[in-house]
C-alpha cells in the first residue's frame, strides 16, 4: 500500500521526461523538499544538501561492491541553494547501493575538512548496507540502500495513554533473547522480542523502552580481553538516525528494511504495549579528530558538530564529539527524523540520551530557551508522543528538575534513583528526600497542573527508576558493595563509583540462606516502593526475576552471558516474578497512585507524609521509618481510593500507627515484603487481613495498606 505522498509522486513522474543523460542514465531535476532517496514509478529521487560544500556527486554501486559502477555529478539545473536533487531513471534498486562525494574547502582550523575522495553515507538514508551480520567488521565505506515503504498499518490508531499511566520496561533487543535460555526461534532479533510478547503481557507492563535500534557500529573500538571479543554492544554510537539496525532483523530485508520492526511494533500495540525508542542525538560514531569521516564530517563538519575556535571537537558527550543540535540545519534533521519514526514506524515516544546536550548553544553554553527543545515540544506531528529527557550530559550539565521542558518533556528522575537507593539500604539522612520522591518529587516538578490543551507537567514530568541499563541490575544492587568491571579491560576504572548499593553481608554470589533471603526482600522493597510512587515507573528487563550482571555496572561492551538475560532465573525466582506482577497490577488498580483524584470523601488529603504515628506528619531528617499516603475519590468505582505505604529501613521491628478513618472504614494489608512466615508477600483482593490501629513493621520491610468500608 503506497502512502499518499508516494502515490502523488508516482503520478507526477509518470509523464515526466529526462532533461539530461549523465553517466548513461536519464535524469531530471528532482523533488528538492524530499531528503534522502525516494523510489518513484520511473526512477529514484536523490536529494542531499551541504552548506559549505561546493559540489556534489552521486555514486552508484552494485550490491556488495566497493567501486561505483557510475558517478553522476549534480548539474546546475539540479541545484537550488544548498540543496542537490536529481531523479535518476532506469535503476534496479534490487542491486543498488549509493553514496555521495562532496567537494569543498579543507581548512581544519576553520572547521572545514572536505575531502572529495571520501565516500559518504546519506544522512537521511533509510537503510545502511553491509551491516546485516552482527559483529562482522564492515569492509570499505558505508553505502545506503533505497527502501520501498509498503507496510500497511491499516486503521491502527495512535495511543492516547498518558505517560503517568505507563509502566516502562527498558530492554536491549539483542540481549533480551540472545541467550539460549530464552527459548525463542529467532534469538537476538526483533522477531525474537515479538515471540516474548505473551510474557510481557503476563508481566503487565504497558510500554517497552528499546535501547538504541538505529544503525550503529558495534565493531567500533572492538578488542579482545581475556579471550572475549568486546564490542560496542549497547549501541550508543549512531551511524545513521533514519535506518533501523539491520542486524536486529532475523532475515535479510533488502529494499524493505524495517518491516520486521514494524511487525513487532504493530503486535505490541495490539497487545496494549507502547514503544519508546532510546535515541542518541548527542554524538555520532565519527568520533573526534582521530575518528572516521563517513557522513556528517564530510557533508559539513562545521554545521553538524560543536567545534572549538581552533576547529577541534567539543566533547560534552564523553564519546569524542558533540552534535550541534541547535544549528538550524541539524535542528531540522532531528525534527524530520522523529517525524519519520512517528509516522512510518508508529513509535509512541522517545527517550533522549544525554538530553542536556540538546539544550546547548553552538559554543557549548547552556541556552535558556533552547530552540530544538521548543521545536519538538510544539511540533504538531509529535503532539501526542512522549518526550523523555535524560536531563544531564557528560560535560557536567545536570538539569534534573530544571530541564527546559516547555510543559511537555518528562525527565528521568535521577534524584529519585539516588535518594531511594540510599534510604532503602539504610542511609537514614535521606528520609526527607525519599518521602518527597515517593510523593511525586513536587519540589522538583512544581506539583500538578494542566493547560487548556491538556499539556500535563508536575507529577507527570518524572520517570522514576532505581535501575536502568547503565548501572547495577536490581539483584546486583543488593549483592555488591562495589562495581566489578574488570572484564571490560580498563582495570575497573570505568563505570560509576556512586552506586549506593549494599551486598547484604557477602560480596557477590552467596549460598547463605539468610543473605539470600535479605537480598530478595530488598528487591521486593524496591519494587513495592517504585510501583507505589507518584510518577511514571521504569525498571530494567530481568529485574523481575533477579537477573544479574555479576557486579558489572557498565556492560556496554559485553556481548555475552554477562549482558544477555538468563531466562532460567525466571523459573528459579518465580516468586519474585509473581510479586512484580502483583505490584504492577496493584498500581493499575489504584489510580490515586499515578494521578490526583477528586478529594476523598473520608477527608484524607490527596498526598501526605507521616511519621510512625500517622497523626504526626513531621518526618525527622534521620528517620528510619516513615509512611506516605495517597487519597482521592475514584468516580469510576464510586468509592474512595486510599493507599498507605510504610517503609521500615531499620534493622529492628518498628510498630506504626495507621490513620484514623471515618466510620465504617478500615485498613487492609495488601503487601508485606517481609512475608507472613509462609512466603506470602501479597494478598489478592478480598483476601487481605484487616488491620486495626497498629501494625508491627518487620526489619527492612515495606507494607502497603488500602482503606475501604467494612
Description:
There is one protein chain. The protein has 710 residues and is of the alpha/beta class. The protein folds into 3 domains: 4-104, Immunoglobulin-like, CATH 2.60.40; 163-587, Glycosidases (TIM Barrel, Alpha-Beta Barrel), CATH 3.20.20; 597-709, Immunoglobulin-like. Helix content is 20%, strand content 21%. It is built from 15 helices and 31 strands. Strands 14-15-18-19-20-21-22-23 form an 8-stranded parallel beta barrel. A hairpin with an 8-residue loop joins strand 5 (55-61) and strand 6. The longest helix has 19 residues, at 513-531. The N and C termini lie far apart (59 Å). Mean pLDDT is 94; it is low at 448-458. Its EC number is 3.2.1.-. Keywords: Glycosidase, Hydrolase. Residues 170-587 form the Glycosyl hydrolase family 13 catalytic domain. This is Glycogen debranching enzyme. It holds the Pfam family CBM_48.
What descriptive keywords fit this protein?
710 residues, alpha/beta, Immunoglobulin-like, TIM Barrel, 3 domains, 15 helices
Amino acid at each position: 500500500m503506497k502512502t499518499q505522498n508516494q502515490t502523488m509522486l508516482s503520478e507526477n513522474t509518470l509523464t515526466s521526461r529526462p532533461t539530461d543523460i549523465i553517466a548513461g542514465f536519464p535524469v531530471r531535476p528532482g523533488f528538492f523538499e524530499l531528503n534522502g532517496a525516494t523510489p518513484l514509478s520511473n526512477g529514484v529521487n536523490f536529494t542531499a544538501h551541504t552548506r559549505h560544500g561546493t559540489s556534489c556527486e552521486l555514486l552508484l554501486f552494485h550490491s556488495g561492491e566497493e567501486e561505483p559502477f557510475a558517478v553522476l555529478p549534480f548539474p546546475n539545473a539540479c541545484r537550488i541553494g544548498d540543496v542537490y536533487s536529481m531523479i535518476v531513471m532506469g535503476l534496479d534498486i534490487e542491486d543498488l547501493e549509493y553514496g555521495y562525494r562532496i567537494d569543498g574547502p579543507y581548512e581544519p582550523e576553520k572547521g572545514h575538512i572536505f575531502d572529495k575522495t571520501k565516500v559518504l553515507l546519506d544522512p537521511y538514508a533509510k537503510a545502511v548496507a553491509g551491516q546485516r551480520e552482527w559483529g562482522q567488521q564492515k569492509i570499505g565505506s558505508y553505502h545506503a540502500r533505497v527502501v520501498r515503504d509498503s507496510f500497511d498499518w491499516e486503521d491502527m490508531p495512535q495511543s492516547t495513554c498518558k505517560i503517568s499511566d505507563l509502566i516502562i520496561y527498558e530492554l536491549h533487543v539483542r540481549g533480551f533473547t540472545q541467550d539460549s535460555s530464552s527459548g525463542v526461534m529467532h534469538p537476538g532479533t526483533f522477531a525474537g522480542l515479538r515471540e516474548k510478547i505473551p510474557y510481557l503481557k503476563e508481566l503487565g507492563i504497558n510500554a517497552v523502552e528499546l535501547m538504541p535500534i538505529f544503525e550503529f557500529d558495534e565493531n567500533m573500538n572492538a578488542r579482545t580481553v581475556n579471550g572475549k571479543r568486546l564490542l560496542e554492544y549497547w549501541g550508543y554510537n549512531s551511524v545513521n538516525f533514519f535506518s533501523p539496525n539491520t542486524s536486529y532483523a532475523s532475515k535479510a530485508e533488502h529494499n524493505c528494511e524495517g518491516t520486521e520492526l514494524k511487525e513487532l511494533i504493530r503486535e505490541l500495540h495490539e497487545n496494549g504495549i507502547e514503544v519508546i525508542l532510546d535515541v542518541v542525538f548527542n554524538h555520532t560514531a565519527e568520533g573526534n579528530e582521530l575518528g572516521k569521516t563517513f557522513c556528517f564530517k564530510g557533508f559539513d563538519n562545521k554545521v553538524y558538530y560543536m567545534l572549538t575556535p581552533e576547529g577541534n571537537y567539543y566533547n560534552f558527550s564523553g564519546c569524542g564529539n558533540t552534535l550541534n543540535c541547535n544549528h538550524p540545519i541539524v535542528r531540522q534533521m532531528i525534527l524530520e527524523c522523529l517525524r519519520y519514526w512517528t509516522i512510518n514506524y508508529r513509535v509512541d515516544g522517545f527517550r533522549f540520551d544525554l538530553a542536556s546536550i540538546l539544550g546547548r548553544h553552538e559554543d557549548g553554553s547552556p541556552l535558556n530557551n533552547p530552540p530544538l527543545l521548543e521545536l519538538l515540544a510544539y511540533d504538531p506531528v509529535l503532539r501526542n508522543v512522549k518526550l523523555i529527557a535524560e536531563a544531564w550530559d557528560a560535560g557536567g550539565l545536570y538539569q534534573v528538575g530544571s530541564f527546559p521542558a516547555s510543559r511537555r518533556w518528562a525527565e528521568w528522575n535521577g534524584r529519585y534513583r539516588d535518594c531511594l537507593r540510599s534510604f532503602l539500604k539504610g542511609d537514614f539522612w535521606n528520609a526527607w528526600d525519599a518521602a518527597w520522591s515517593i510523593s511525586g518529587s513536587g519540589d522538583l516538578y512544581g506539583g500538578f497542573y494542566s493547560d487548556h490543551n491538556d499539556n500535563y507537567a508536575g507529577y507527570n514530568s518524572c520517570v522514576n527508576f532505581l535501575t536502568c541499563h547503565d548501572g547495577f541490575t536490581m539483584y546486583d544492587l543488593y549483592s555488591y558493595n562495589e562495581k566489578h568491571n574488570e572484564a571490560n579491560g580498563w582495570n575497573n576504572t570505568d563505570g560509576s563509583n556512586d552506586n549506593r548499593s549494599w551486598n547484604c553481608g557477602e560480596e557477590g554470589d552467596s549460598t547463605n540462606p539468610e543473605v539470600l533471603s535479605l537480598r530478595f526482600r530488598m528487591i521486593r522493597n524496591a519494587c513495592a516502593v517504585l510501583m507505589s510512587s507518584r510518577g511514571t515507573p521504569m525498571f530494567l528487563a530481568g529485574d523481575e526475576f533477579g537477573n544479574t550482571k555479576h557486579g558489572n555496572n557498565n556492560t556496554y561492551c559485553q556481548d555475552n552471558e554477562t549482558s544477555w538475560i538468563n531466562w532460567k532465573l525466571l523459573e528459579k525466582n518465580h516468586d519474585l516474578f509473581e510479586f512484580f506482577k502483583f505490584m504492577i497490577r496493584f498500581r493499575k488498580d489504584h489510580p490515586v497512585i499515578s494521578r490526583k483524584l477528586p478529594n476523598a470523601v473520608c477527608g484524607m488529603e490527596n498526598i501526605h507524609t507521616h511519621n510512625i504515628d500517622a497523626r504526626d506528619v513531621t518526618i525527622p531528617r534521620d528517620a528510619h521509618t516513615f509512611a506516605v499516603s495517597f487519597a482521592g475519590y475514584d468516580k469510576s468505582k464510586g468509592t474512595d481510593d486510599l493507599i498507605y505505604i510504610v517503609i521500615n529501613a531499620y534493622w529492628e521491628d518498628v510498630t506504626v500507627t495507621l490513620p484514623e478513618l471515618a466510620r465504617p472504614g478500615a485498613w487492609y494489608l495488601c503487601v508485606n515484603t517481609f512475608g507472613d512466615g509462609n512466603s506470602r508477600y501479597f494478598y489478592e483482593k478480598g483476601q487481605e487481613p484487616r488491620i486495626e490501629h497498629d501494625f508491627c513493621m518487620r526489619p527492612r520491610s515495606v507494607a502497603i495498606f488500602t482503606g475501604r468500608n467494612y
